[in-house]
Design brief:
By secondary structure, the protein is α+β, with helices and mostly antiparallel strands. It contains five helices and 22 strands. The strands form four sheets. Strands 1, 16, 17, 18, 21 and 22 form a six-stranded mixed beta sheet that branches. Helix 3 packs antiparallel against helix 4.
Length: 422
């Protein structure tokens, strides 16, 4: 076993005592005490790091929505320009019905066999056109008989007149009694009555021959054929042979509320011819235009409405009998007003406003006042002026001062002469 020999100490050096080593161990203990604290702080920083990271994103989103920084945050919108134009004030009459001015059911006035049909179903016929023919031969025979009877009775009358002339001369010579002359006068009058009756029979037979050729009483459109050739028809038949409906011109009967009646009556009393526009069932497509013709003489107390009739030339044939239409009656025209598409107008419970695009591509909220609405256009009486660019779509992302990129709409509000709907 080797003996341990401590190293030699240099001259003047002091040997380390146990007292000097104890403080060194206590210093190391204090340093390691902070280590758990640092670990906790690091864990807290790591836990809070996602929230700190999301903050710039939120800030960036807010910047983009507000459009405050640069062109990269501009919101794309579609806009239209408010223009100066004309607009009409209309009374709308829902539930109008197209009603022909004339509808005729053609019936036979004589009995006989239907021989010929001179029309095609759906044809437009003119007044006086030959439609059907009924066998005329029985009535031709009746005419010949009446003419023969007429010839016989006319001869009897002529003979009675000759006798009357002779009796008058004999009475002047006192050759016959006066009673004989009176009797002859009565015979002449009787013969004249018979001849007149015969003439009536002839006229009746001729009229029946005319009735065998049935002609159109009006100009109109022929409906479906109700009786085929070869059938026997009678004057007493309840069903007709065909129906003719006049469709050019044609009328529309519609209703308006009794509250709208005074303005209509006032315009008519002033001699104005109010224009009426007929729209389809969906109230989107204009079918035709006409003129108000008349007003009914009483208000329906159950509905509080009054019936009106408007006449349409219907040159295009778009109005059809019994068709359901919506009628817009033009009662006033406004000229030189500010018009905007109805799509640009935004509404809340207590305000009506639009977004106006400024020259720097920012938007401003403008409170407006609406006027007359016609189709897709609205009259704006205050808040904007012609030439203002108004946002149509994309308003849900906008706020006061937001930056936008604008695409102009193809269809813009515009004036139309005469105030007529599209």
């Amino acid at each position: 076993m080797k003996d341990y020999t401590p190293p030699a100490m240099e001259p003047g050096a002091r040997a380390a005592s146990p007292v000097t080593k104890a403080p060194k161990r206590r210093s190391l203990g204090r340093r390691w005490w902070w280590l758990p604290v640092l670990v906790l702080l690091g864990a807290g920083a790591w836990y809070l790091r996602p929230k700190a990271t999301s903050t710039p994103s939120t800030s960036t989103t807010a910047t983009a929505k507000g459009g405050k920084k640069g062109g990269s945050g501009a919101i794309p919108v579609v806009a239209a320009t408010a223009l100066k134009g004309d607009i009409g004030v209309y009374i709308t009459g829902p539930g109008g019905s197209v009603t022909p001015v004339y509808t005729v059911t053609i019936k036979s006035r004589v009995d006989g066999q239907l021989m010929k049909v001179h029309y095609n179903e759906g044809d437009m016929v003119q007044e006086g056109d030959l439609l059907v023919e009924i066998d005329p031969r029985p009535y031709q025979v009746m005419l010949e008989q009446a003419e023969g009877q007429m010839a016989r009775d006319q001869a009897t009358l002529d003979n009675a007149r000759v006798d009357l002339d002779r009796y008058q001369k004999l009475l002047a010579q006192n050759a016959i009694p006066e009673q004989q002359l009176a009797t002859q006068k009565a015979a002449v009058a009787q013969a004249e009555g018979v001849v007149k009756t015969d003439q009536g029979q002839i006229d009746s037979a001729k009229l029946n021959l005319v009735y065998c050729s049935i002609r159109a009483p009006i100009t109109g459109k022929v409906g479906l054929r109700l009786v085929d050739p070869g059938n026997i028809v009678h004057a007493a038949d309840t069903n007709g042979l065909l129906v003719i409906t006049q469709i050019q011109p044609i009328s529309v009967i519609f209703t308006v509320a009794e509250d709208d009646l005074p303005v209509v009556l006032r315009k008519m009393a002033a001699g104005q011819h109010l224009t009426a526009y007929a729209y389809d069932r969906a109230n989107t497509t204009k079918i035709g235009s006409g003129t108000l013709a008349t007003v009914d003489n009483q208000i329906d107390p159950t509905t509080g409405t009054l019936r009106l009739r408007a006449n349409f030339d219907n040159s295009a044939g778009l109005l059809f009998p019994n068709q359901f239409v919506n009628v817009h009656l033009l009662v006033e025209e406004k000229h030189g007003v500010t018009l905007a598409p109805s799509a640009v107008i935004q509404r809340t419970t207590n305000s009506t406003y639009v977004y106006v695009v400024n020259a720097d591509r920012s938007v401003s909220v403008r409170q407006i006042t609406e006027g007359v609405v016609e189709g897709d256009n609205t009259e704006v009486t205050s808040g904007i002026a012609p030439g203002d660019v108004l946002v149509m779509t994309g308003v849900d992302k906008l706020s006061e001062g937001a930056q936008v990129t604008v695409q102009m709409a193809d269809a813009q509000a515009g004036g139309r002469s005469g105030g007529k709907p599209k």
